[in-house]
């Protein structure tokens, strides 16, 4: 990930915090993303925590949105963990809700081990665990998965 997302100059020391934090960056594949939070705190040189985070990612012509009540970002692992009323949406009208989810910033895959519910143009689903892969083109549901497909939906 491009280090500009968390500029060193913004953090003067360990345990620094910023209110109404806004970070903008471009990853190594030239995908734009932005990160907003009511409060951002640097816990260590590579661990940051956030209150009411919102992540927006633009990949090709699709926009992805991930938000929740709390988050942590491990810069070394390039993983964002979001918890508390987590919502994932994209510009194709898919929406997923869960209590916790993680996003791998290298692959942009999103995954979680908490109950998930979702809906979109093709129908509704629920499961105990999930993975969103290939920029949202594949959703894997595991553990007591249920899906209702709208067969009359126009594509």
TrEMBL record:
<protein>
    <recommendedName>
        <fullName>LPS export ABC transporter periplasmic protein LptC</fullName>
    </recommendedName>
</protein>
<dbReference type="InterPro" id="IPR010664">
    <property type="entry name" value="LipoPS_assembly_LptC-rel"/>
</dbReference>
<dbReference type="InterPro" id="IPR026265">
    <property type="entry name" value="LptC"/>
</dbReference>
<dbReference type="Pfam" id="PF06835">
    <property type="entry name" value="LptC"/>
</dbReference>
